[in-house]
Amino acid sequence: GYRVSLQGNFFGHNHKYVTFPVYNPRKHIKLDPPLNLQSNATASKCQIWWSVRNVPWYLVEILQYELQYKEYSMPWEIALNKTPSSSLPQTEIEATELHSGIAYVARVRCKVSENENSYHSQWSEWSQTTVFQRADVPKLSEKILNTTMQLLFILLSFGTLLYLFWNCKLSSSCFLNLGQKVSPALTFPRQLLSFSHCIVCIMGISR
């Protein structure tokens, strides 16, 4: 600790005033504001990070941050505050807290954590701001969606026809194995005709 006094000449007389009988610098800290504030907004969240300067290494891990953000056109008096849970110089804002198509601005400040007994500080000044906007969820165009639905329908229909054709083939084999006289001319052409008719129908629908 230190003893801090004020000494001067007043009206021709020297006077000395004790300002702080015991002054401990570690209990009266004010840090420089964070700098290099940056942001990256996606459709699900907005990531914000920054850095600090002139901070001793033994204070970096016990820092506390406060983020303040608002709509760009609104005053800071109605801004929202967010306190990160760790001492890392970064935080996130969920997309549910942001409106689509609205520009936001954020700033951050720091101080020694209130849970720390060895050091005490007041809040730093606010940092410079960063502007961000939530990204919209990409949507498929109507044309792409229609093309995709047609392709799925064709694949499903083709798979169904293959399944039916395979079952018909197995059924014909079973009849032959049972010793029944089944003429191939009566079965296969009819199956082929049905299969060709279905293919023509599918081609007409896809067009």
UniProtKB/TrEMBL annotation:
InterPro entries: FN3_dom, FN3_sf, Hempt_rcpt_S_F1_CS, Ig-like_fold. Keywords: Glycoprotein, Membrane, Receptor, Signal, Transmembrane, Transmembrane helix. Its main location: membrane. One of its GO terms (molecular function) is cytokine receptor activity. Residues 33-135 form the Fibronectin type-III domain. CDD domains: FN3 (cd00063). The chain crosses the membrane at residues 144-166. It comes from the Eukaryota. GO terms for cellular component: external side of plasma membrane. It is a single-pass type I membrane protein. It is found in: Membrane. GO terms for biological process: immunoglobulin mediated immune response. Coiled coil: none annotated. PANTHER family: CYTOKINE RECEPTOR (PTHR23037), INTERLEUKIN-9 RECEPTOR (PTHR23037:SF29). This is IL9R protein. The lineage of its organism: Eukaryota, Metazoa, Chordata, Craniata, Vertebrata.
